[in-house]
């Protein structure tokens, strides 16, 4: 099942710089592991924003929820999920 996910990152300005750097480093490792596993199929920066659009390929709503809620930056994100279905005119 494919899902379009938009993540807007809102890290508080007063967060300890060490905690910030550690959280971002853990987020990167977590995201790259999921990409290698084929679960996180696309990851794009939205130009000019601390936000991304992503496409996930997972088995269920529950699996996606588990992945998203496990993001180290999850406490500092607004997440918007859109389930994707096949378009009848798509050729691939
Ligand atoms: O920077 C972001 O968009 C947030 C998050 C998503 C992947 C990652 O490494 O960080």
Structural features, described:
This protein is of the alpha+beta class. Strand 2 (40-45) and strand 3 form a beta hairpin. The protein has helices spanning 17-36, 61-69; strands at 2-9, 40-45, 51-57, 77-84. It is elongated, with a radius of gyration of 14 Å. It has a four-stranded antiparallel sheet. The site of [(2S)-5-oxo-2,5-dihydrofuran-2-yl]acetic acid (MUC) has 8 residues, from strand 1 and helix 1. Residues 7, 9, 27-28, 31, 43, 52, 73 line the site of [(2S)-5-oxo-2,5-dihydrofuran-2-yl]acetic acid. Belongs to the muconolactone Delta-isomerase family. Keywords: Aromatic hydrocarbons catabolism, Isomerase. It holds the Pfam family MIase.
């Amino acid at each position: 099942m494919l899902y379009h996910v938009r993540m807007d990152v809102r890290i508080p300005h007063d967060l300890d710089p060490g905690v910030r750097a550690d959280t971002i480093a853990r987020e990167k490792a977590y995201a790259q592991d999921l990409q290698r596993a084929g679960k996180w199929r696309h990851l794009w920066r939205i130009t000019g924003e601390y936000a991304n659009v992503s496409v996930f390929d997972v088995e269920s709503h529950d699996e996606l929820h588990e992945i998203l809620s496990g993001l180290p930056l999850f406490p500092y994100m607004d997440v918007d999920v859109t389930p994707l279905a096949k378009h009848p005119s798509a050729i691939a």
